[in-house]
Write a structure and sequence with these properties.
Bound molecules: magnesium ion
CATH class of the largest domain: Alpha Beta
Structural class: alpha/beta
Radius of gyration: 20 Å
CATH topology of the largest domain: TIM Barrel
Distance between the termini: 28 Å
Strand content: 15-25%
Number of strands: 12
Largest sheet: 9 strands, mixed
Length: 376
Amino acid sequence: MKIAEVKTYILETTLSEPFHWAIGEAVKRGSCVVEVITDDRVSGWGECFGPARPAAAMVEAYKPWLIGADPLATDKIWQDLYGAFRDQGQKGVPICAISGIDIALWDLKGKHFNAPIHQLMGGPIRTEVAAYATGTYRKRSGDPLDYIVKEVLGYQAEGFTACKIKVGFQVDEDAALVAAVRHAVGPQFGLMMDANHGYDAIDAIRLAQAVEHLNIIWFEEPVPPEDLDGYLAVKASTSIPMAGGECEYTRFGFREILKAGAIDYLQPDTCAAGGLSECKKIADMANAFGVRMIPHVWGTGIGLSASLNLMAVLPHNPPGRRPWEPMLEFDRSEHPARQAIMKTPIEHVNGIVQIPTGPGLGIEIDRQALATFCVN
Ligand SMILES: [Mg+2]
């Protein structure tokens, strides 16, 4: 079996209502989907996080190392691709492109052996995961104290037991919002907050100290991803654990975070940090450092299924009668292509999501639906 063809699909849709976070706004939602086709006409699907057009261009650039290669040799291909642009491509879009390719290769491997990816990766350790809701983005108008509190109450009513609140705008405003949400949902509901690196350490510390009494599970990306000293300063100032990693890449990048002891909840994105091959290595490294891992998830059902397959094999750390379990990041913001491109959507029931059990990613792509979102 050889790789015969590699295709990219740039998906793009205009949102019914733009939404923003601390450092950016989404008017459209896009994604780069990768299809790797073997010479016996079997397709594997992957997805790249980040800007879709540059990711698709990078996938194109990796093609000479892919065409004719054995698709089952996932680690060898990963090393070939990483080595191809190592000098200029250790982080960012080149690694997002490798991620999409690697996920597609794992999908193919699963189909070849008629087994789910998580089985081939040594699991499953778990067959379902509790999900937390990601949402609470800001609208262009309206009072966040009103519409965000209502949004979170909606998640609670749906059966979610935790939700992440977007912060990073202005300290007093953020503190008032977190307090209003906590007041509305009661003391038991899990709350995280995510500044999307919109703060420097001074403001991040001010917010952490202002909301510390509200029982916050983690403070995500309080400061820019390159500022590990900033993470350490915030961490030293508060009992709230630090989370981050959606802007970090490969075992080499995560090694530095782990060595510094900067982050308590490591959040590599399967579609960005190097794919399933690399995220399993990062997970094992986090395990060795005693750090919890909860993958970052932001994309279509392909990324969601890849994350679920990875989550199935995340090691307990430590094992026990009631070990700590990772939670799935379940993005609830508008993304018309997210579920539509799959023949069977991945949904939650009372905040619980089943890990797919079909061969490979365990999903079937609806090519017609894919074509309606495709702009290349
Ligand atoms: Mg985040």
